[in-house]
C-alpha cells in the first residue's frame, strides 16, 4: 500500500495525474426485482449493458482535451484508449446478443441488435421513461456506469507507463474475459489472515473452491505460529497462488523476481497439493518485460476482470458486494477479486451468493484457473 500511495503522490506532484475519484458502486436495491431466475438475470444484464454502452458512446464525443479534464490527467494515451473502446464494444455486443436469447420469457430491455452499428444506435437512444417500472434504477445506474467507465479509461490512459488489469502484456497473462457465459471464479488476495480461516470454512460449506493469492511474509508468519499440517487444513479444497513476498507493486521494486521466487518456493514446500502456478500482481502492476521470467518459472500472471474495490475505505461491505453484482451483470463472466485481509468479505460474499443463487450462473473450480 505504501508503494502505491508513494507512486500516486509522486505522479500527482509531477502533474501527471490528479487524485482518482472514489470507486463506482450501484445500490442494487434500486433494481425492482430479484435475480431469481436465469431470465431475470438476463433482464438486468441487458439493462446494465445498455447503460454502459450509452456511457461509452457519450465518452467518444469528448475530444482529447475534454477527456483529459474528465479523467483528471495531464497526459493520456489516446491510441490505447481508442483500441480499448473497440474491445469494449465487441464485448458489449457479444454479451447483449447472448442476453437477448431469453426475450421470449421477458421482453424488458429487448431491442433489435444484430451488429455493432445497431448496438450503437440503441445505446444512443437508450433512456428509461419516468413512469417505467425501472425508473428508480435509471439515474443511479447512469452515474455508476459513467464513473466505472472513467475508472477503466483512466487505467488505459496511463498505459504503458503504469500497468493494470485492463491490459494484457502477453499470452502468459489472463484476466477472465474469455470464460464461458454465466461462469465466474472467486479469488482472494493478501492472506492469510484471521479472515482466511472463516472464508475457507465458509466456501467449503458452500461447495465452492476459490484461488487464494498469498503473501510470502504472511504465510511464513502463520507457519511460524502453527504448522504445515494446520496450513493444509486451512486451505483444504482450495487453490493457492502467490502474490509476492509482500504487498508491493512489482513494477518498480528492484527485487521483484526474488519476491516471486521466495513466495513460490514457500507455497510449494508447505502447500504442494494446493499450489497452482499463478502470480497475482499487487495493484495489477508488473513490468512490461517480465513475460520471459514468468514463462521460465512456469507461472502465469492471473489478473481479474471484476474488482470489488474492498480495499477502498470509501466503500462499505454492502457497496462492495453491490458493485461486484453490477459488474457480473455487465460482463456476464470473469474473475472476481476480493481481499481476505478485509473483514468486509465476511458479509459481502454471503450476500453475493444469496443474491445470485437462483440466477443460473456457475462458480468455476479453482483448478481450472491454474491450468495452462
TrEMBL record:
One Pfam family name from the record?
Polysacc_deac_1
Q: Which residues form the NodB homology domain?
A: 182-366
Which key words tag this protein in UniProt? Signal
- Asked if the record carries the keyword Signal, the reply is yes
Its signal peptide is: 1-18
Example GO BP: carbohydrate metabolic process
List each coiled-coil range. none
Does this entry carry the keyword Signal?
yes
Cited SUPFAM superfamilies: Glycoside hydrolase/deacetylase
- Return the CDD domains for the record: CE4_NodB_like_6s_7s
Entry protein name: Polysaccharide deacetylase
In its UniProt entry, the species of origin is given as Pseudomonas endophytica
Amino acid at each position: 500500500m505504501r508503494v502505491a500511495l508513494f507512486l500516486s503522490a509522486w505522479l500527482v506532484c509531477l502533474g501527471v495525474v490528479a487524485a482518482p475519484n472514489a470507486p463506482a458502486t450501484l445500490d442494487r436495491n434500486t433494481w425492482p426485482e430479484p435475480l431469481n431466475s436465469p431470465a431475470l438475470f438476463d433482464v438486468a444484464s441487458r439493462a446494465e449493458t445498455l447503460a454502459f454502452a450509452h456511457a461509452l458512446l457519450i465518452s467518444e464525443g469528448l475530444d482529447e482535451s475534454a477527456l483529459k479534464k474528465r479523467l483528471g490527467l495531464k497526459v493520456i494515451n489516446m491510441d490505447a484508449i481508442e483500441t480499448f473502446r473497440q474491445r469494449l464494444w465487441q464485448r458489449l455486443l457479444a454479451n447483449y446478443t447472448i442476453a437477448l436469447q431469453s426475450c421470449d420469457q421477458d421482453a424488458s430491455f429487448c431491442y433489435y441488435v444484430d451488429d455493432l452499428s445497431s448496438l450503437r444506435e440503441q445505446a444512443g437512444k437508450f433512456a428509461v421513461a419516468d413512469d417505467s417500472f425501472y425508473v428508480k434504477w435509471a439515474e443511479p445506474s447512469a452515474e455508476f456506469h459513467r464513473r466505472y467507465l472513467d475508472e477503466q479509461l483512466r487505467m488505459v490512459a496511463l498505459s504503458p507507463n503504469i500497468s493494470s488489469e485492463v491490459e494484457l502484456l502477453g499470452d502468459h497473462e489472463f484476466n477472465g474475459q474469455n470464460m464461458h457465459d454465466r461462469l465466474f471464479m472467486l479469488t482472494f488476495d493478501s492472506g492469510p489472515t484471521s479472515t482466511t480461516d472463516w472464508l475457507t470454512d465458509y466456501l467449503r460449506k458452500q461447495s465452492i473452491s476459490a484461488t487464494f493469492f498469498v503473501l510470502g511474509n504472511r504465510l511464513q508468519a502463520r507457519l511460524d505460529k502453527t504448522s504445515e499440517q494446520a496450513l493444509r487444513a486451512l486451505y483444504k479444497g482450495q487453490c493457492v497462488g502467490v502474490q509476492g513476498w509482500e504487498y508491493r507493486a512489482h513494477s518498480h521494486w528492484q527485487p521483484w523476481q526474488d519476491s516471486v521466487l521466495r513466495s513460490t518456493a514457500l507455497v510449494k514446500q508447505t502447500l504442494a497439493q494446493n499450489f497452482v502456478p499463478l502470480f497475482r500482481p499487487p495493484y495489477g502492476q508488473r513490468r512490461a518485460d517480465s513475460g520471459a521470467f514468468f514463462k521460465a518459472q512456469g507461472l502465469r500472471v492471473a489478473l481479474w476482470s471484476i474488482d470489488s474495490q474492498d480495499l477502498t475505505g470509501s466503500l462499505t461491505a454492502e457497496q462492495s458486494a453491490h458493485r461486484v453484482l453490477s459488474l457480473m451483470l455487465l460482463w456476464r463472466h470473469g474473475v472476481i477479486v476480493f481481499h481476505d485481509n478485509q473483514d468486509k468479505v465476511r458479509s459481502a460474499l454471503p450476500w453475493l451468493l444469496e443474491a445470485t443463487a437462483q440466477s443460473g450462473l456457475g462458480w468455476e473450480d479453482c483448478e481450472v484457473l491454474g491450468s495452462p
